[in-house]
Amino acid sequence: MARSRAVYEYTEAEDKSMRLGFLLIAAGLLSLLGLGCCWLRPALQERGGGGSANCTVLAVRQLGERFACTFSCGAACRGTARYPCLQVLVRTSRSSAPALLHEDERQLRTNPKCSYIPPCARDDQENSENVTYKQKYWKEKVGSQPFTCYFNQHLRPDDVMLKRTHDETVLLHCFLWPVVTFLVGVLIVVLTICAKSLAVKAEAIKKKKH
């Protein structure tokens, strides 16, 4: 009986293969769960009720109000600077009411009052120049030319985005790689079990012949 049980015991290499397979299965499941709760659900909520439209610039203006931003000048060097608030008001093909344009959902959440947040520099004057450059871009280069923008009637009916942070490609990868990890883990476990089963059967047939 002891000899029979020994035949069915996994070798060290097979044991490592099984552990790797179960580790990949657990990693795939945890990744799906984590991405679903922390990232995918909010992304789908942002996309729900949203769509694309054609936007036309109505007005480009700088407000007198300035906002703070944090710059980094090294590992242990951080500080606060300020930048002027630029607003780009547009009209969409879905509504005649003016809407405030934003770079993307991230910028909208960071500062919903402004249309643009410049890369934070230590010098306030440099931040002002970056905002002024963006203002000229919308006034002179874009002007009255229509462009594609995105909106979400449920979350932000009075705001539109120039681009989406969460597009179809990102959502696809959010699902794809955890599923691939899970399936590779399952495949490793199944192949290891099948290989062991075949080896045991081959050993049993060999013993019967002798």
From TrEMBL:
UniProt cross-references to Pfam families, sorted A to Z: CaKB
Entry membrane topology: Multi-pass membrane protein
GO terms for cellular component: voltage-gated potassium channel complex
Residue ranges crossing the lipid bilayer per the database entry: 20-40, 170-193
Location(s) in or outside the cell: Membrane
Main location: membrane
One GO MF term: potassium channel regulator activity
GO annotation (BP), single: detection of calcium ion
Keyword Transmembrane helix: yes
Superkingdom in the source lineage: Eukaryota
Keyword Ion transport: yes
UniProt-listed InterPro entries: K_chnl_Ca-activ_BK_bsu
Keyword terms of this UniProt record: Glycoprotein, Ion channel, Ion transport, Membrane, Transmembrane, Transmembrane helix, Transport
Descriptive protein name: KCMB4 protein
UniProt lineage: Eukaryota, Metazoa, Chordata, Craniata, Vertebrata
Gene for this chain: Kcnmb4
